[in-house]
Design brief:
single chain; Nucleotidyltransferase, domain 5; 2 domains; about 25% helix; about 30% strand
Length: about 210
Amino acid sequence: MISLLIDTSNQALSVALNRDGKLVAEINTNFKKTHSETLLENINKLLNIGDIKKQDIDRVIVARGPGSYTGIRIAATVAKMLAKGLNIPLYSVSSLFVLAASERIEGPVTALIDARRESVFTATYDFKKSEVKIVNEPEYKTFIDDKASTYFLNGDEKRSIHISEFVDVGPRIACVEQYNNMLREEDVDAFTPDYLRISEAERNWQDNQQ
């Protein structure tokens, strides 16, 4: 089985091709550039590197959020387009789990994505060999550094939170496929990203209505 994996949830971009769960090729970047300009280009690069035709892809796995509204929408749109056009299944995975799975560790880890205004998107996972359990489901909340958790955070992203210690991790979506229980099969037509909060524009509109 050949899987195409896509994550543009935030500043970083991560795309990969796996064959039977094992890496064929991946591209990971971590700099400010519009994902809409680079995502399709990088997918085509992967296919060329792996000598794989687009028609050979068996499924698409996309990071569904939370994270940047624009970034999530770009990945979701491309993933849906490919799944629909190739008539293949679409799977999604939490962007927080992508971050948590990108660095090998045993035991519990709390993934953080800065959500601005001293808030975070966060979830906690417990890794034991090839198995993982969700300790705390993804949520949006004000960040409080309890200094007890092992925090995973992409240190190159802008931060509004004050955190004493964290493991600087660049997301690598190629790593998630080994954890089948974390993948969710989606209805291609009905699939929507997992934003976990309303956008700032929606919040401003609601405030103006009050």
